[in-house]
Structure formats: C-alpha cells, structure tokens
Amino acid sequence: MLDQIHLLAAVTVLGVLEQAYFLLQVIYARRVFGISPPKISGPPEFERIFRAQVNSSEYFPIFLALLWQAGLFFHQGLAAALGLLYLYARYCYFMGYRASSSKRLDQCLCCPGAGLCSQPRSP
C-alpha cells in the first residue's frame, strides 16, 4: 500500500511546508509594518503579502483533494508531477503578488502557452 501513495504523501508534505512558508511571510510582514492581529489592513505591501497567503490557503484543500483522488484512482506519478507543477506555480504567484498585484502572474514562466500561467507582460 505504501508504494502506491509515497509520491502523493511527499507532494502533500511539500505543500504543507509551502503553506507554512507563506504564513511565516505574513508573520514577518506584520512585524515589519507593525500590524498586530486581527488587523488585516495596512500598507499596500502588507496587504499584498496577506492576500497572496489567503488566496493560497483558500485553494489548498481543493488541491489536496484533487491530488489524492487523481493519485489513487488514476496514476500516482502523473498526479505527483502535476502537484509539483501546481506548487511551483503557486510559489511564483505568491512571489509575484508580493512584488505587485498586477504582476502576480508574471513571475510564472513554467508553462507558457499551456494556459496555466500567463506570458510576461511588457511594461
């Protein structure tokens, strides 16, 4: 049984670590900008980091459900590979959003033309 889920479990752990990283970025931003919980408004830089983390957290349960269903009922390797691609795209999204809300998709060049990520925009 473990040989059928080890890749899915590894991607799940990586996803949880990524979510923890995003959360730590919000904690760090709160300290830098002097915003104590439960406040969620402040300088635009803080709000972008906070919003990127919330956006990522909102989609994480859907990601996990799809990852495990695809891995258990179809093909573990393909599901794990697509899961890693999703985690990379989510990281690019977070970094882009942190820089500027209009550039939240510009950072991700992982799959141009596939419709998963946008092409870089000209200034």
Description:
- The protein contains three helices and no strands.
- With 123 residues, it is mainly α.
Give the gist of this structure:
By secondary structure, this protein is mainly α.
List the helices and strands and how they pair.
Elements lengths: L5 H28 L10 H30 L2 H24 L24
Give the averaged pLDDT, no decimals: 86
From N to C, what is the helix and strand string?
Answer: HHH
Low-confidence stretches: 111-123
Rg over CA atoms: 16 Å
Number of strands: 0
Secondary-structure-derived class: mainly alpha
Strand content: under 5%
Number of helices: 3
Biggest sheet architecture: none
Approximate shape:
elongated
Q: Helical amount among residues, as a percent range?
A: 55-70%
Distance between the first and last residues' Cα: 52 Å
